[in-house]
Design a protein that fits this description.
Strand order of the largest sheet: 2-3-1-4
Oligomer: single chain
Distance between the termini: 14 Å
Order of helices and strands: EHEEHHE
Radius of gyration: 13 Å
Largest sheet: 4 strands, antiparallel
Helix content: 25-40%
CATH class: Alpha Beta
Length: 96
């Protein structure tokens, strides 16, 4: 399989927007250093400030799986559960 793209959408619970943004922003630098990370960008919806989107590209599914088990990701998941209304993750492969 070629590079793998991840699109993750996180919606903060009302009143938790700033906490979610701080938590997610803290993932960017350590995740960019993880082996196999080619792109790791965090976005915030202009019209919905509590909606965040990660756009990531990884060299392989195996390296993405290793990233998902890093301390910074595990720590974030533990904290995010109380702050997020929803999380959706899509794995995509480029076809053209």
């Amino acid at each position: 399989m070629a590079n793998l793209t991840v699109v993750a959408t996180i919606v903060a619970k009302p009143g938790c927007e700033k906490d979610v943004e701080a938590l997610l922003t803290g993932l960017v630098e350590p995740s960019r250093k993880d082996k196999g990370c080619l792109r790791y960008d965090l976005h915030r919806a202009v019209d919905q400030p509590g909606t965040f989107l990660f756009y990531e590209t990884w060299e392989s599914k195996e390296l993405l799986d290793a990233h998902l088990e890093t301390p910074h990701l595990l720590n974030m998941r533990d904290k995010l559960g109380a702050l997020a209304a929803s999380t959706e993750i899509k794995l995509l492969e480029k076809i053209s």
